[in-house]
Amino acid sequence: MNLENKLNKVAKYFDGLQSIGDKDKYPYVLFSLTDYNPPVLPDLIEDIADLIVEKVDFKKVNILVSQADRGGGPLTFAVAKRLGLPFSLANWYPRESRGHLVVENAGSASGPGFICINDINNDSKVGIIYDLISTGGSTIALAHAVIKAGAEIKTIVSAAENINYDGFQKIENFIGVKPLSLLKYKIVEGYTQVIL
């Protein structure tokens, strides 16, 4: 299947879904990729990984980083396997282990907490992989941990960007790296609308 067909197939997973929760403050959408509701299909992860590897330059990256929960974990594994790169997944709960760093995750739509990441150091040239970026809060917290470790962020890529919250601009302002996404969507009258 060619890349355009894969992108259109991925877009269908994000398009026309109803938001839930407080629609005025933060209309939340349950996506297969992020919430496993409905359960995520392996082909979705495979298609997104193929698109990311084709569209993003990872030549200067020597390690991939994402969050362990939600869709970032399986997506990062699929991209790492294609590129032959190691990866480290950040956890929400600190664990005492060699080489770990903990930073507060205060500005995320997912809620407050801490992000703990292991074995990132000043030799690390990092590619951050995300399933979905909305407000940018958890991405900034993860990037903060990477920077605190002395590593350099080379690229940030997300399968999708929710443009209702200007998260990409907040991330670029904080890190100085412009994130990339395969597709964008917005919520209009309670439903997602994909923009390719």
TrEMBL record:
MF terms in GO: transferase activity
Any Gene Ontology biological process: purine ribonucleoside salvage
Keyword entries, A-Z: Purine salvage, Transferase
SUPFAM superfamilies noted in UniProt: PRTase-like
Xref: InterPro entries: PRTase-like, PRTase_dom, Pur/Pyrimidine_PRTase
PANTHER family xref list: HYPOXANTHINE/GUANINE PHOSPHORIBOSYLTRANSFERASE, XANTHINE PHOSPHORIBOSYLTRANSFERASE
Identification of the protein by name: Phosphoribosyltransferase domain-containing protein
Native source species: candidate division WWE3 bacterium RIFCSPHIGHO2_02_FULL_38_14
